[in-house]
Amino acid sequence: MTAPAQPKKIVAPTVSQINAEFVTQLACKYWAPHIKKKSPFDIKVIEDIYEKEIVKSRFAIRKIMLLEFSQYLENYLWMNYSPEMSSKAYLMSICCMVNEKFRENVPAWETFKKKPDDFPFFFKCILKAALAETDGEFSLHEQTVLLLFLDHCFNSLEVDLIRSQVQQLISLPMWMGLQPARLELELKKTPKLRKFWNLIKKNDEKMDPEAREQAYQERRFLSQLIQKFISVLKSVPLSEPVTMDKVHYCERFIELMIDLEALLPTRRWFNTILDDSHLLVHCYLSNLVRREEDGHLFSQLLDMLKFYTGFEINDQTGNALTENEMTTIHYDRITSLQRAAFAHFPELYDFALSNVAEVDTRESLIKFFGPLSSSTLHQVASYLCLLPTLPKGEDTTFDKEFLLELLVSRHERRISQIQQLNQMPLYPTEKIIWDENIVPTEYYSGEGCLALPKLNLQFLTLHDYLLRNFNLFRLESTYEIRQDIEDSVSRMKPWQSEYGGVVFGGWARMAQPIVAFTVVEVAKPSIGENWPTRVRADVSIHLNVRDHIRDEWEGLRKHDVCFLITVRPTKPYGTKFDRRRPFVEQVGLVYVRGCEVQGMLDDKGRVIEDGPEPRPNLRGESRTFRVFLDPNQYQQDMTNTIQNGAEDVYETFNIIMRRKPKENNFKAVLETIRNLMNTDCVVPDWLHDIILGYGDPSSAHYSKMPNQIATLDFNDTFLSIEHLKTSFPGHNVKVTVDDPALQIPPFRITFPVRNGKGKKRKDAEKEDEDTEEAKTLIVEPHVIPNRGPYPYNQPKRNTIQFTHTQIEAIRAGMQPGLTMVVGPPGTGKTDVAVQIISNIYHNFPEQRTLIVTHSNQALNQLFEKIMALDIDERHLLRLGHGEEELETEKDFSRYGRVNYVLARRIELLEEVKRLQKSLGVPGDASYTCETAGYFFLYQVMSRWEEYISKVKNKGNTLPDVTEVSTFFPFHEYFANAPQPIFKGRSYEEDMEIAEGCFRHIKKIFTQLEEFRASELLRSGLDRSKYLLVKEAKIIAMTCTHAALKRHDLVKLGFKYDNILMEEAAQILEIETFIPLLLQNPQDGFSRLKRWIMIGDHHQLPPVIKNMAFQKYSNMEQSLFTRFVRVGVPTVDLDAQGRARASLCNLYNWRYKNLGNLPHVQLLPEFSTANAGLLYDFQLINVEDFQGVGESEPNPYFYQNLGEAEYVVALFMYMCLLGYPADKISILTTYNGQKHLIRDIINRRCGSNPLIGRPNKVTTVDRFQGQQNDYILLSLVRTRAVGHLRDVRRLVVAMSRARLGLYIFARVSLFQNCFELTPAFSQLTARPLHLHIIPTEPFPTSRKNGERPSHEVQIIKNMPQMANFVYNMYMHLIQTTHHYHQTLLQLPPAMVEEGEEVQSQETELETEEEATPAQADIVPSLTDASFSQETSASQTETIPNHTGASSSSEAIPPESEITATVAEPVAVPVENNTPQDATSAPRETK
Predict the structure, then answer these.
(1) What are phi and psi of 1312, to 5 degrees?
(2) How far apart are CA 1171 and CA 1176, in angstroms?
(3) Are residues 439 and 648 in contact, defined by beta-carbon separation less than 8 angstroms?
């Protein structure tokens, strides 16, 4: 098994190359946005660029990239396009630009929408060009470009402009391309279609001849394109050389066919055309399939096309077909063939009279039809309307091989898709892991196509939806597994020993050599299966490692996945590993198999179970793990060993590798998806079509739901009646009480409800009344019943004044249906979510709500806010392992809740005891919940009823206030409440207090009744299950936990009515879908009533590590984003309260009218300037440092030393002014830069008490969902914009800061980027050099935007800033030193204190001398990294140590890391610094 050659990585051009390019010079003359005086349009420019730059370079991506980046399409091509100018070069240039935009994953159709009138003509020209002869005006390469353009059009049906053009190609009239007999057959099948067909014919007759000819051309376009492709395919020879242009054309064509088949709107009529053209038969018989190397990808694509052409769906209705319906279709085909044979072909009598099961295999069909002549086969096919009728006396023009394959492939028995899936092993093996076509390397350029499914807007059926996600999720996991195996195994350095065995020259934290491996159990197969139900094995390893690593190995839990690896190295001891060469042959890797841990074995060979009990301490270093192997894989391997004499894989393993638990849940998720596909997964009817992307996208909005609720209790949502009125602008609010004193929250609101579709109105007056009524809200204030006399009985209240859009989101969330809330940064998404949860809890106490988020951090933030509202904590439950990070003393995990219930039960029984004593009742009523229940029934209720009969109104007599208090039976019990309990002001008030007291008592017994189950259930596990299924009303988990535990939850009988998802735009499509199905349907229906998704699709999508899956398969598209694209209505929150208004302007252009909350203007922290800095945000230009900009020590591991040093220098400057270090975060767009900045901070200031460390140094992607007051951002790149071109990343980067944002970048590169213009035009409007005010300490009283009274200093470059900070630090040290000197001259009593201070400082000095790494904390600012003498090659070797893995051995000794950064040397810069910086540490003292 040889690993394929590594694909070449596309090297982006540098700024200097861009500027030197002919294209750039033309751009500057004709269309660059920053040029004021442009030359007039000249079509010759387009011709020249196309011929000299694009065609001459054979469509080199680098050239096209430059053109697209220079805004060629937006500012020149489309702006000046008109039908008269449709030359070949013009058309091709536009197609190239659009294709490049799709490759770069940036919006492509925006430009065309601005000038849509010419698009129809342009599109017709493209269709004409796509059908042109290949040896004519358009070359095959050019036609491949056109095919790709058409594919993008078919995949952009949500764009009205495109859809209007494409629809004409794929609607029913395209059946003109069918042969007449087949058309007749299809129309006979569906009588309704005959009506439509006759109507089409009538309309055609009314057209004028030219328009009719044009329409016919469009309808026949796809049929003609298929014929053209077949002719190209037939021209591929079997063994002679073939041009790659032909191969690429064929691959792209099949990709287009797959995409047309995989979308219902395009498939509906096209599938019949495809079937009639017999494309698959032609392809499978072609020479290209037989060419092993050139045809490998073509064959894989062909298998995908075959899968989709036979997909289990009714093309016309779009309904999924069941297994039985598919079998019926198969039987119908075979029997119609048998009938034709019986009636017309005596030589096929045997076939005609056999039963179906006997004749529907490939072998038997070939046996019956093989002996027939070509002409007879043609006649059989024409009887089935597969081919045109053969005229009498003529021989067929088709060859026999084609005719035979046509009949056989159409009638052979198919394998059920679900059966194939169930027999598939879930763990990847070495064959898949290193197959480039299936799991491409990270260097996917986006040029070629791949044999991968795509996630677009729509899916055929739920089965198709799950299957595509299953395949992609499996391959994405495989890619990550490959990286982990390559990392761990290469660290272990397997070499061949002298005796031919294996010797390991290194070690890895995540992998260990296997000492012994034995299979201990192979269980019998289940009935009807041929693989074992279970296979278990024991793996022994020797843990001679550090304690914390041993703990990690011993901490392997049940269900953790490990990999068993066999290596047989051929390289002798001491050979170096080269990361650039194929990995497999270097280490001699032979096999990879997955396994799942059952547990570690104890001394007696028993599995140690997970649980609350402490684990036993095992002696020695040898450990054995019991693992489950994959039964499907085991069966395949054993069959291979027995039948083919292959070696037994399971006797060869010599390495076991584990993975990080967080990244290792792929098997559980795949099993969950597979289980879903095997069950009848019931999605609520109101969601089904929306999930597949069809029907009315707004059909699940609450306003269209049949079960809309008229009256809702908004509880504590509104702070006052004025707040309520401003929350419903344009509505007429009617309050049921007129007294303003009574118009206080909480409020119940009755909305006008329209059931379904509006009725036809007879006259305009009625319509006016109706609109008036539709705008009227009836508001009823109500009083929450008194809950008791204790202060803690008072309900907690919401204090947030929600905006009207937030109120709309809350209202929608309370109503049944699908609610989507788009929450830009800082708009209070979490507050809205918590209020929705609270309101549902109070309005529908019997319903249960499931909360799902992407990260534990978001879940914890939600929980902390939920606890601040009026929700009884016994109803809260948190599943998963994230509860450890909750910043509360309370434990909301399952066992934490069990302990809470038990403790609460004891507390409540104590209260019962006290009540019993106060009432003077003998016996032990507080022994159990059961006895307490009887006590309540017989003692408490009887007293209460007697009391009520005494004090309630009797006839006409006025009630006496004093009686309420006098007869009250529980005075003694409430003696510990604030006195007096009864105010004696009015009968109503005192009666409400008395009832409140009784409610307090009743709640005690209600809770005890609920807790009674914990007396009956004895084990912690049973109690926790009871809590989950019965007691908890609000259950929270991450989407990963939901995917992992679905099987267990369904088995337990878990039920819920509502789902709320936070961070929905960051969750993978499939991980958003699984939480909908964590319960069994009731009577075939889902009980789900509400689905609330809150997210922001303008921020970063889910993380997909492999570029091919991310870009080609669109796997990074979340369900939330897809719903927005489909057109599902959203509530867009429109007021942010996080950042200064000026900072908000940097990203608010991306949202629909995002404004600011009033406090952003009013609060002093937002109106005060940033001390020591002239501007609240600034873009600081960083030029090359010592001739080097960005460097790339490892692939994609970008670093920029100049920016890193500049960022750290500004951070130190801010800390020296007095900014708290934890209020500053340093962000960057690349991992390499993150590690470099961390290293520099460790060297410069990490351990220095005067400066400290920033709150975080991390990447923009990791910091999503977090914020800080001041953000320093390094954009790293100097050659190409890189992934910041994704506007979503820009939005996240710009929106993390509250008060100050300082960006370090190469301005000339970023200011030209079209997508980033709205932000960078604001940034470049300010000076590009850092403006500081060194004499202004933190905090300042200066207002933001005011001219400072102190002197402003302009920093030109990084060395100047570094020296400035060094001088500032030295000055600070000297003044502190001077301060200590004065301390020494104080009176004796104070000198002692001074001496103490001094001695502490001396200790500090000795420590500093002892650790040289700390000794040059700040003085080393003026060190080799700034020295003009350091060579450029040195600066390039800045740490490349961290990219591979975060394991501890990934980091070499510190001396290696910063050897090039930290040798103190003199710096010849304009400032007067001490010449010998090496003496600095002594000066510090």
Answers:
(1) -85, -5
(2) 9
(3) no
* Alpha-carbon separation of residue 470 from 303, 309, 562, 1301 (angstroms): 17, 20, 21, 41
Spatial contact of 820 and 1124, defined as CB atoms under 8 Å apart? yes
Amino acid at 1242: N
Give the three-state DSSP class for 505. Answer: coil
| 1321-1344 burial: b if 16+ Cβ within 10 Å, else e | ebbbeeeeebbbbbebebebebee
Which residues are within 8 A (CB) of 980 and not within 5 positions of it... i.e. 6 or more apart? none
Q: Cα-flanking dihedrals φ and ψ of residue 1364, to 5°? A: -60, -45
Q: Which residues pair with 629 in a beta bridge?
A: 535, 595
CB 1212 within 8 A of CB 1218: no
User: What is the amino acid identity at position 37?
Assistant: K
Question: How far is it, in rounded angstroms, from Cα 967 to Cα 764?
Answer: 64
- Scored b (16 or more CB within 10 A) or e, 513-532 reads bbeebeeeebeeeeeeeebb
**How many other CB atoms are there within 10 angstroms of residue 1407's CB atom?**
12
Unique residue bearing structure tokens 């890391």: 1457
Euclidean distance between CA atoms 130 and 220, whole angstroms: 13
**Helix, strand or coil, per DSSP, at residue 574:** coil
Residue keyed to tokens 């196309």: 50
Grouped pLDDT means (10 residues each) for the chain, 1485 residues: 48 54 82 83 91 89 86 90 90 94 88 92 93 82 94 91 91 91 90 90 90 90 94 91 92 95 91 94 94 89 92 86 88 90 89 88 91 91 90 87 92 84 89 83 77 90 91 91 93 90 92 95 89 94 92 88 94 84 90 94 86 77 94 93 92 94 84 88 88 91 92 92 92 90 90 61 48 82 87 86 95 96 93 95 94 88 86 86 59 80 90 91 88 92 90 72 87 88 86 92 92 84 83 90 88 93 92 90 86 94 86 91 93 93 93 90 90 94 92 88 96 94 95 95 86 94 92 93 88 95 93 85 94 91 89 93 93 83 56 37 36 37 37 35 36 33 33 34 31
Asked whether the CA dihedral 377, 381, 383, 389 is positive or negative, the reply is negative
Alpha-carbon distance 1164 to 1151, whole Å?
27
Q: Please give the Cα distance from 386 to 402 (Å, whole number).
A: 12
By CB neighbour count within 10 A (0-12 exposed, 13-18 middle, 19+ buried), where does 710 fall? exposed
CB 1334 within 8 A of CB 1172: yes
The amino acid present at 658, given as its one-letter code, is: R
SS3 712: strand
Whose tokens are 């990808």? That residue is 297
CB-based contact 839:746 (threshold 8 Å): no
Q: Which residues contact 190 (CB under 8 A, 6 or more apart)?
A: 316
- Answer for the pair 902, 994: CB distance below 8 angstroms, yes or no: no
The single residue listed with the structure tokens 């698959």 is 280
Residue position matching structure tokens 């053009």: 165
**Whole-number Å distance between alpha carbons of 494 and 590:** 13
Tokens 């077949």 label which residue? 230
Question: What's the CA angle centered on 1000, arms 994 and 1006, to 5 degrees?
Answer: 135
Tokens of 134: 């290949």
Q: Kindly tell me the number of DSSP H helices and DSSP E strands found in the chain.
A: 62, 30
Q: Collapse the DSSP code of 57 into the 3-class scheme (helix H, G, I; strand E, B; otherwise coil) and give the result.
A: coil
Q: Which residue reads 């190239």 in tokens?
A: 96
**Lookup: tokens for 1032:** 């908890």
DSSP of 221-281, one letter per residue? Answer: HHHHHHHHHHHHHHTS-SSS---HHHHHHHHHHHHHHHHHHTSHHHHHHHHHHHHHHTHHH
- DSSP H or E segment with residue 297: helix 296-309
Q: Is beta strand 511-522 parallel, antiparallel or unpaired with respect to 1090-1095?
A: unpaired
| Alpha-carbon separation of residue 460 from 300, 509, 642 (angstroms) | 21, 45, 41
Tokens of 86: 């449709």
**Which two three-digit tokens encode residue 341?**
């044979």
